[in-house]
Design brief:
By secondary structure, the protein is α/β, with parallel strands linked by helices. The protein folds into 2 domains: 94 residues, NIF3 (NGG1p interacting factor 3)-like (Udp-n-acetylmuramoylalanyl-d-glutamate--2,6- Diaminopimelate Ligase, Chain: A, domain 1, 3-Layer(aba) Sandwich), CATH 3.40.1390; 107 residues, Udp-n-acetylmuramoylalanyl-d-glutamate--2,6- Diaminopimelate Ligase, Chain: A, domain 1 (3-Layer(aba) Sandwich). It is built from 10 helices and 11 strands. Helix 2 links the parallel strand 2 and strand 3. The protein is elongated, with a radius of gyration of 19 Å. The structure holds zinc ion.
Length: 246
């Protein structure tokens, strides 16, 4: 397919116009015009780029791309090396941040809801979701369920009831949205990362907090997006998981 078709399709499919984001959503670095093979991954780090070169991909599709609002605009050091890798290999870089967290069918938050078999899912204004377990379970069992589902031991900061049913969650570095989860009376709030203050907020507001990993909670959306594109446009797509303990 043509790069232009892919960019146009994803802009529409992920409704990028609806999000105010910290980085550009869409084509970030332009490469060849024809795309037959895409590599997907969470972050456009050097290891992902090198693997994409090895696999002779025409495009890389990620959740965390480049050109964040907070970063300096100079293209030097590791950033120069990354961009050079793309340009020398005529490889496109496409990145979708918040639109991929929020997509109702295959976004990170939608996929986590499915992974934990949550029901009656309601979007809380913003990106946080609220759902319910089919039946209430001891918090210990739920922590184990989340750990097993993501293949890593999650960090549990206790504060809520012994038995839980109402779960709020938001992928990535969304620990500060714990306040929304409290307002919506969730028993548990799950995000990727954690701050020092999260411990105290959980204890004092009567909610459990689970730090389940930024990378771990954001693998599913980009992987599903690649599978969706492969099926819809009959192109080759490989998900490459560059391990990250955070
Ligand atoms: Zn993220």
């Amino acid at each position: 397919m043509l790069r232009s078709e892919l960019v146009e399709y994803l802009a529409d499919f992920l409704a990028i116009e609806q999000y105010k984001d910290y980085a550009p959503n869409g084509l970030q670095v332009e490469g060849k015009a024809e795309i037959k093979h895409i590599v997907t991954g969470v972050t456009a780090c050097q290891a992902l780029l090198d693997k994409a070169v090895e696999l002779q991909a025409d495009a890389i599709l990620v959740h965390h791309g480049y050109f964040w609002k907070s970063e300096s605009p100079e293209i030097t050091g590791f950033k120069q090396k990354r961009i050079k890798t793309l340009l020398v290999n005529d490889m496109n870089l496409l990145a979708y941040h918040l639109p991929l967290d929020g997509h109702f069918e295959l976004g990170n938050n939608a996929m986590l809801g499915k992974l934990w078999a949550l029901e009656d899912i309601t979007p809380i204004p913003g990106l946080v979701r609220l759902g319910r377990l089919a039946k209430a379970v001891p918090i210990k069992n739920f922590v184990e369920q989340v750990s097993n589902s993501l293949n890593r031991q999650v960090l549990h900061l206790p504060g809520g009831p012994d038995v839980v049913q109402t779960i709020a969650w938001c992928s990535g570095g969304a620990q500060n949205y714990i306040n929304q989860a409290i307002d919506w009376r969730a028993d548990v709030y799950i995000s990727g990362e954690v701050s020092e203050q999260t411990t105290h907020i959980a204890r004092e507001a009567g909610i459990h907090y689970l730090a389940a990993g930024h990378h771990a909670t954001e693998r599913l959306g980009i992987k599903m997006l690649g599978e969706h594109l492969a099926e819809k446009f009959n192109i080759e797509c490989h998900f490459v998981d560059v391990k990250n303990p955070v």
